Amino acid sequence: MISKPSSWRVSPPDYQTLDKAHGRIEKRSIWVSSELKGYLDYPYSEQVARIERTTTDLQGENLRHEVVYAITSMSKEHATAQEFLGFNRCHWGIENRLHWVRDVTFDEDRCTIRTKSAPRVMATFRNLTISLLRLDGEKNIAKALRYYAGKPHKALGLIGL
Q1: Which residues contact 135 (CB under 8 A, 6 or more apart)?
Q2: Cα gap 9→62, rounded to integer Å
Q3: What is the pLDDT of residues 134-154, one digit of tens each?
Q4: How many other β-carbons are positioned within 10 Å of the β-carbon of residue 23?
Q5: What is the pLDDT of residue 7?
């Protein structure tokens, strides 16, 4: 383990959360700065952030510690540290609500369609189907697919036909 120089100080995080859910405790801390604006070779960069996530089980064991860095084009006025951390957390909502459904419910990873633009077209159809079902208020996409598979006339109603 690398020790930190004694003169090295860490400022307190700009924002921090502590959540207890799903049998674990998660602590998230974020440091945000706009001091690199104009110095980074990254288009439209306004702010940078350092996000630390520490996860333990309820007994304080099985520690997992992650550090990630982020860049955003949003200014301090449009994304405070609290909002920035919230945006980062919402990213996983996309992963869980879309990609997981595509991977598991549609079994997309085992799809054998691999030539020309067909894979992209099929991905578009899957995304469209998920979006239509979500707009209709469906929470369980697999259950909704089974329902509409037996009632194709009702499925057409999702697109106004």
Answers
A1: none
A2: 27
A3: 999 998 999 999 999 999 889
A4: 7
A5: 39
